[in-house]
Amino acid sequence: MMREQRSTASAKIVWSGRSCGDGSKIQYTQMRAVDAATGKTLRIQGTPCITRFDPQRVTWSRQRFGKCGSAPLQVPALPTRICSATGGNPGSFISGPTPANPNPASPQQPPAASPAPDGDQQDPNGSSTAAPDLQEAASPSPLPDAADASPSPAPFTRSGLLLPRVPLSAGDSAPSGVQRIEAATPDGVDNTEGLPVEQQVTVGVIDSGVDRTHPDINYAGGQSFTAADANADQDAYGHGTHVAGIIGAKNNGQGVVGVSPGAPVYSLKVLDGQGRGSMSGVIAAVSWVATEGVKQGIRVINLSLATMVDPKSEEYAATVDAVCGVFAQAEAAGVFVAVAAGNYGDALRGYLPAACPSVAAVTAVDETGSAAASFSNFLEVNGATPEDQARIIAAPGTKIRSTISFAKDSTGYRGKGITAGMRPGAPEQPLQWMACVTASCADGN
């Protein structure tokens, strides 16, 4: 695991560490001065500028590197937990210098990946401040939602295969993000009920599970790809159910509506109740979709998780090839892949799967829709190919209100600082809009 700290215009410090304790914490073990432009280790009179943790000098080492689960004294903002790759707050940085290996039997393990607990908003410095729950989420009001107001959308024209529009049910609420992308308008919302099976688009949510008991979710089934929890239809962490509601919360007279109300959601569980998982589990889930999931109608998958790998590291190319190859297989199978761009305020090239050329990476805009969210990762202009520019999507990204698992909140709804984006579905599919979600990270509930 590595973390960079800018020291001067020409040099920076790279902190390296390993997992410790129960595997969720970080112990820093090395700091290295490198050239900011080339990434090469700096030298003084021929000696590399590297300081390492010395187990023979425990006090000396702890003063410089901290203990397991604590940051070095001189850099208290360094993360201390392996928690989330999309968060960007202390305790949530994940890096993966080891090349990902899609073969679970191999002793070489890929980098860890997990999403973050809901409920955080990122500040420009990448730290996290808890966002209060929106009390009106438990008793939402009809469209337009005064508590979640946004300017009325301008008239628009639809084209292609269209879903029928029906009025928003009394007692239901359309969150502002859903209104802003015109998935909910004064003339109603899309209706997926009664569509022929061959026209249904099932969305795979690769996350922490989906609460199948939630009345606002059209649960279509599930598979678990984490040994920590085999129950894909349960969601102790809450995040997967939150994502599922953004995608397809029903127009049923309660709670909220999603981008495509009633869309079938298939749970692909890769994260445990603490929001932790591995990239090997993610790779296994995506591979399953490409071979078996498509047979069950899965045509879209969403991943609000990521892992970081240093673009200047020797392992970068091998890691990208291993991870991105699996996502390319999913694309070849006819599956649209939406992923988190990341919430580090950093170039997304160092984050997987956002850096993969076959996925749509979603960045965030603020509540006004006129500026990028301060925490959102981005595509660097210099060196960006037309293909990369075409696959980056900007979408509503703060205070997204949606469903959540009853294990996480007894009301079943929560308004959180989750970053969400929406984009049109494939033109040959009747589903007019599909949600792609990125998530903030917190180090708590």
TrEMBL record:
InterPro entries, A to Z: Peptidase_S8/S53_dom, Peptidase_S8/S53_dom_sf, Peptidase_S8_Asp-AS, Peptidase_S8_His-AS, Peptidase_S8_subtilisin-like, Peptidase_S8_subtilisin-rel
- Which species is listed as the source? Tetradesmus obliquus
Which UniProt keywords are listed? Answer: Hydrolase, Protease, Serine protease
Q: Please name the SUPFAM superfamilies in this protein's record.
A: Subtilisin-like
Ranked from the top, the taxonomy reads: Eukaryota, Viridiplantae, Chlorophyta, core chlorophytes, Chlorophyceae
Q: What is this protein called?
A: Peptidase S8/S53 domain-containing protein
Task: Give the compositionally biased regions (Low complexity).
Answer: 137-151
Give the UniProt family note. Belongs to the peptidase S8 family.
PANTHER family reported in the protein's UniProt record: CEREVISIN-RELATED (PTHR43806:SF11), PEPTIDASE S8 (PTHR43806)
Where would I find the Peptidase S8/S53 domain in this sequence? 199-399
Chain positions covered by the region annotation Disordered: 88-160
Q: Where is the composition biased (Pro residues)?
A: 99-114
